[in-house]
Amino acid sequence: MKFKEYLSSLRDKTVAVIGIGVSNRPLIELLLSRGVAVTACDRKDRAALGALAEELEGKGCRLRLGPDYLKDLTEDVIFRTPGIRPDLPELTAAVERGSVLTSEMEVFLEACPCPIIAVTGSDGKTTTTTIIAELLRAAGKTVHLGGNIGHPLLAETGSMTTADIAVLELSSFQLMTMTRSPHIAVVTNLAPNHLDVHRDYAEYISAKENIFTHQGTSDIAVFNADNEVTRSFMGREKGRLRVFSRRETVERGAWLAPDGNGEGPTIWIANESGRRPVLPLAGIKLPGVHNVENYMAAIAAVDGLVSDEIIRDFAKHFGGVEHRIELVRELDGVRYYNDSIASSPSRTIAGLNSFPEKVILIAGGKDKGISYDSLGPVVNDHVKLLILCGATAGVIRASVEGAENYRGLEMVDVEDYHQAVSLARSRAVEGDVVILSPASTSFDRFANFMERGRVFKEIVNGLK
């Protein structure tokens, strides 16, 4: 369905948009500009919205605000924000009354005129998505970056051409109700996550599967062969399969092996034309084994679209994405890293494994219903001082003390990041690494992981 046709189909319908956040605001304004009757619904009250409430009403938007914002929805079409489950009683009742429940991203996948590459997974989504987008741009492609990264794309669909490429990061919440899949689907890995929202791990996995289950025979699925769950997807793809692995040679996709010319471990690619070395690990600026996997996933996805020379040149200079093992500064020989994106134990484990030395770790935040048992042994092996701050301080401490390799690691509880950074500064010596890698969400104290990371960086940059 063409985008203009879709907009035209809404002119004689009523539309509710749930959530007046950054992701939905362009959608609301687009619909209003096309004469669609829009009701914007949000838990916030009028005072919290401030001037935005008057601005939207001035454009003809109806507002439904406060705790009853989902009550008695009767609109013909309801756009769900990703953070709200589709099976809430209020939404279920609206669908039973005849409403069509959809989302900005679901409509985008239907209306986008160009090929779509999408990435999901528990860890590495943003970095892999960014690498793919930047490699395609370096190859001269017009790239539209969106989904769970960048900005909402639906409002821009009308200006896209068939020669462009859309690159998306998709969360489990965005994928839950998807009935379309991208042309190239990448799954980086899967581990228990977001179990404070999903009923269980099985539902989380099921949501992720939607990134490839609706593909056609000419589409491409890229899976991590080293991850137990994503490996189980192999053979269920409907299109062409590509995999990536650090542990074994693959028939189609990317793997690690010596290049044969003294370059050391190298990412190779295998396709219908044969096998070739693409990227020596020594040529990757980003630290960490997990970033090697991110490059392997990206290289498997763009094979045939981007030259090896462009890949090698990009890897030499790409320093990573903000809040992902981001070097904040070096002071008195001590390096301070911001890994605020680490909102789960698996992310923090990957961060700790990126450094050969033992680090000073600042961790803790809001619990999202997942186990921390796997974190304790890794902390004992890779941390010299653990500074705990936030609601999960107790469960992280328990995971460390309960691990078989616990040998009395020093752990200190602090009230806030000012105390955490001050303590780290007083205890660190030349050559040390201090890293914020919370292993928890930010919502106990911050609006999101970006705000958390920025606060940490401001404190670190203020050190004298």
Reported for the largest beta sheet, the result is: 9 strands, mixed
Low-confidence parts: none
- The proportion of residues forming helix, as a percent range, comes to 25-40%
Briefly note the structural class of the backbone. Answer: alpha/beta
Average per-residue pLDDT, rounded, comes to 93
Q: What spatial form do the alpha-carbon principal axes imply?
A: globular
Number of helical stretches of at least 4 residues: 17
For the secondary structure, the number of strands is 20
Name the beta content range: 15-25%
Tell me the radius of gyration.
Answer: 23 Å
Biggest β-sheet: strands ordered side by side in the sheet: 7-8-6-9-10-11-12-13-14
N- to C-terminal distance: 58 Å
Provide structural commentary:
This protein has about 475 residues and is of the alpha/beta class. Helices cover about 30% and strands about 20% of the residues. The chain has helices at about 5-10, 25-35, 45-50, 50-60, 90-95, 105-110, 125-140, 170-175, 200-210, 230-235, 290-300, 310-315, 345-350, 375-380, 395-400, 415-425, 450-460; strands at about 15-20, 35-40, 60-65, 75-80, 100, 115-120, 145, 165-170, 185, 220-225, 240-245, 255-260, 265-270, 275-280, 325-330, 335-340, 360-365, 385-390, 410-415, 435. The strands form three sheets. Strands 7-8-6-9-10-11-12-13-14 form a nine-stranded mixed beta sheet. A six-stranded mixed beta sheet has the order 15-16-20-17-18-19, with helices on both faces. Strand 17, helix 14 and strand 18 (about 385-390) form a beta-alpha-beta unit. The longest helix is centred in the first third of the chain and has 14 residues, at about 125-140. The N and C termini lie far apart (about 60 Å).
